Structures are given as structure tokens and as C-alpha cells.
Predict the structure.
Amino acid sequence: MSRTRFVTLLTLTSLGALSGCERKQEPVAPPAPPTTASAPKPPGPKPMTPEQLSHFFRPTPPAKDARPAPQDTEAQVALGRMLFFEPRLSKNHDVSCNTCHGLDTYGVDNKALSDGHRGQKGSRNSPTVYNAAGHIAQFWDGRADTLEAQASGPILNPVEMAMPDERRVVATLSSMPEYVTRFREAFPSEKKPVSLANAARAIAAFERGLTTPSRFDQYLAGQHSALSEAEQRGLHLFVVTGCTTCHNGPAVGGTSFQKLGLIEDYPGLKDAGRFDATKNEDDRGKFRVPTLRNVERTGPYLHDGSVDELPTMVRLMAKHQLARTLTDAEVEDLVAFLKSLTGELPPREHIAAPPLPPSTKKTPEPDPS
């Protein structure tokens, strides 16, 4: 075969035209996508054990330089109970500590803003006195570092109890012989036991006993059936969502100051918060974290009492403090857990109004001015 014929035959073969037949090219199917099995989802975190959950609610060890705990006596507590209900510690004899911090209503009056002297209203909601002894400080802005400092504040506040000065307080208490005797028994080592400082000391002694143990404490102590399944789910969600960043310790709060609107600005916030007490710009908009014990019963919520419903409050905190949008089911479980924090009030004989001594001719008259 000549070289020319060989090349021609090779060319025709490559074109599929050999012997006059048309060879059609078989369509080539596209390659099938690789059949890879979907990767299994990694298992979610295991639910924490009750022992692990309880870690978030333990008391912090006291600092080395912490002041020793007061040694309250029965005489001081009994006097403090009387003074807590004593309306004559107010200028017009019509406002007592219990007026704004009702002991039979979980330490609050359930008003956005409480009524003080001449019906005046303050600018902040009255927080509960129950479980307050475990707080880092008192008042929303933490301006009082102890219960004693807090107890004397409202007595002299012109909007609250409006006593003009300490001398008027001492004159009122000294005018009633039973109070003079009670102060001597409560502070036997002092030459002049009747004083505003000792009145505050006695009220603080009484308030330190205002605790409300609940089923939650039984759960932390090992009685795991004390909480329902929904409550346990809510507790676990409360921890893993990050709520315990602020609401921790035995009171489930009260251990720190936090900015309202930490992640997302809180709408309409005008109150400067802790800045009013410290004048430190870093404290602007910060408030002492409230206890969540009895939160079901202590609304309305926030420093200004602007939120009425607990589920709404849960959603707002998740959004503004944690950048979380909760599902309805999550809110339901969280609220179930929060309701488990409603505790038992102290015995009636401890929180009911006691008999108070009668006024005398020396007792200053009520002053509505």
C-alpha cells in the first residue's frame, strides 16, 4: 500500500467514513456526581448533671479583706422587725419600710414606682428585700454597700419617708419608753443606744433573716425530682444560653453590675444607673443585677418597672444581653424554671406586723408638709 493511500485511509478512519458507512458517535453521559454520604451531625453537648449545674449557684469564697459577718442578736432582730413596720419613722407617720417592701407580697409592692411622702414617686422600682443580704451592694446603682447603709437611706430621703434629719428620728424613738428599752437590750454596750445608725443596724439584722428557700434548693441539694422535666430543661437552657454570666450565686443574681443593653442598645434608656453613684463614665447604664428568686411574684421588672410580663422580660434580656432570639418553646421552659425559684415565705409570726408602742405627748406630730 502506497504511502498516500495509507494516509487517506487513516484520515477516513479517524472521521468515521471508512467503506462508505457513517459511524455516529455515541453520546457521552455526564459524569455522575460523587455519591458521598451526608456527614453525620456531631452529637450535641450532653446535658449537665445536677451537680454540674449547681456549680453556678454556689456562694463565692469571701475575700481575704472582707469584713466579718455581723453577729446579730435576737434582741436586734426583734427590734428591727418593729422598726421595719414603724410608720412614725416617716415625717407624716404614714410610710414604713413595709409600705414599699411588703413582706407578705415577696418584699415588693408590685408597682412600677412606689408612693412616698405626700404621694411622691421615686425614679426607680423598689427591689425586693428578700434574699438581699447576699447582694454585692444595695439599690439599683449600688450606692449602699451594706444593708445597714441601705436601711437609713429611705428614712431621710425627701421623696420616700422624708424625715428632716437624724435628730427628728432620735426624738421620735426616744419619746416612747418601750423603744428606749428595746434599744438598750439590743445595744447594751452603748451609752446612747437610740440612734439612726442603730435603728438601721437593727433593721438590717431583721432583713438578714428574710430568705425564701424553694424547690430549686432541694434540687441543688440532690433531690432531682424536686423540679419537673420542663423546669430542668429550663435550668439547663438558662445555663448554656449564658444567663448565669449575670444571674449566678445563691440569690441567682445580685453579685455584679451589668450594662443594660450589653450587646444591643436598650431602647429608651435614660437612667444613668451606677454612674449616679460613682461618676465613672464606664458605669453609665450599669445596674446591679437583681435576684431572680421569687421573680414570678416581684414584677413589674427592670429599674423603672417598665415591663409587666415575665415572658416578655425573658425575651428582652435574651435579645439585649445575649444577642439571642428565643423560640416560644425555649421561653416556656425558661419561665418554668424561673417559677421554680418562687420560695416559701418565712413563718407568719416572723413577718407579720408586730404590736408597736403607743405614741406619747413627746412624740413629734405627723407633718404632711
